[in-house]
Amino acid sequence: MPSRHDPPHRATPSPLQRWKARLQTRFLLSLAERLHPSDGQIALLWAVPAGIAGALATLGFREAMDGLERLIFGRDGDMAILAALAPWQTRLILPVAGGVMAGLLLMLARRYTDKARHSDYMEAITLGDGVLPVRLTLIRSAASLCSIVSGASIGREGPMVQMAALAASLVGRARRISPERLRTIVACGAAAGLTSAYSAPFASAFFVSEIVLGSVVAERMGPLIVAAVVSNVTMRALPGYAPLYTPPALPELHTVQFLAFPLLGVVLGILSPLFMATLRWGKSAWNALPLPNNVALPVRLGLGGLLVGTISIWFPQTWGNGYGVVNQLMHVSWPWTTLTLVLLFKVLATVISAGSGAVGGVFTPTLFVGAALGALCAKILAVTIPSIHPDTITCVIVGMGAFLAATAQAPLMAILMVFEMTSSYQIMLPLMLCAIVAFFVSRSLTADPMYSATSRINAKRAADERARGTRVRELMKTTEQIVDVDASLEAVRRVFMAMPVKYVYLVDADHKLHGFLALSDFNRLMDEGKLDLNAPAKPLATSHIPVLYPDDSAAVALQAFLRHEGERLPVVASPDDRTFLGVISKADFLTRIESLV
Questions:
Q1: Sequence-distant (≥ 6) Cβ neighbours of residue 584 within 8 angstroms
Q2: Which pLDDT score is estimated for 37?
């Protein structure tokens, strides 16, 4: 009789039970294989928290900005309106105080600058590993906040997108993931931040794809669109949501009026490089000021604030990023003299603010300049060619998009951005026509885009393309580390003694490669006393070394060097023709690739 300590008796499964178990196991394995998510599907899942984090970070920056405005002015709102309501002394003093405070914060930020780490979100996505420095980003965002609430003529979208990208980076860094996936998450955060700033999810996804990533690819667009949509839905669910621009209903355009928009595109395409060159000149002029390094930033930003404040005494419309003035242009027809003066002084204020070092974007000021130029061109057309003169409101909106397309050199993003901000299908045809013309005119005059980070990214991409286009024939050299295939081992020994090489190549009278003899094998046999120097070298030759062909790319050469411990690799004519052409040196190869990159 079994005791209670004996193990329980287990019945042997029947063949039917074993067959069911195998079938069940196969089914579960098949189901797991089918449900196993791909990298693209995982990126879509990560886009959701990145979109939410980006929206909340943007909202936090906006609430901080509104809070400071209420503290300073007693209310929040568009900076141009707040400037018009403030006494002239406030317009003069506040930008100076804000500039000095921003400069002090930027000096503090220098302590946390890591040259090995990319602090700009664009570079972190394309050139870095997706890790954004937390303290540096927060301090620079605080400096931007000081500049914005004190009237600097810069856009607030720059720090908003940077904060959203940082929030997404922190979300990704909460788990140990690959740098490639983290870069995708940061890109999703940037799209979410731009969406929160402009309420344009589709255009924001295209901004990151077209400007930052450099190409519109379906695999990349999916996560960006998901993050942008999630961000927009999050912002709509929170209090205080409102569209940035509120254009009125647009009148119908007659067929002949479409002729005005290519002309407008040419004008905007010509003026766009001039606008960007003026911004670059302003930055160079500020950097050329002979100021001590320990006080340069506060003095420059304070002096820039003084100049902007002086302009705002007569033109308060120059304060802020200008979106409130653009809204006015969409509803009220200004006299051309007032419009021209405000435009000129707005450009001057933007050059001063951005050039002095204020942290912010020029995206929204660019929309302002485009809108004002569109309104001016409409007034000129009404006098010079009244038969094709479109209404001023349409020219204002089209001017915004076309000038943005020309300066950012991203026409698809600009068209979608203005379309989503205005929610008017009626604007699409003239906008597409004008934006494309402006883009091609601008591109023919200059290749410099709006963002300096984009220039570095484009330079890196161009270098990578040149490196990928490099062929082995450009790097190979002739060599004397060869002996005749029928030579003795004594001839091989003389080559090893004369040259610091690890291999000797055996070739025949037609210069066909027959094999290699390694120095390590030669020395081993010599130490073992098994080497007869009068014996032929061919029996000891081996072919276990990769060879390259003249048309092989640099990538193929790199993979060959990774498989081979030697310093040089032989180059033969083709897989079917073993004619020995020369060697490619690992040192020369790496030096050439580094010079291209």
A1: 472, 475, 476, 477, 548, 557, 568, 569, 571
A2: 61
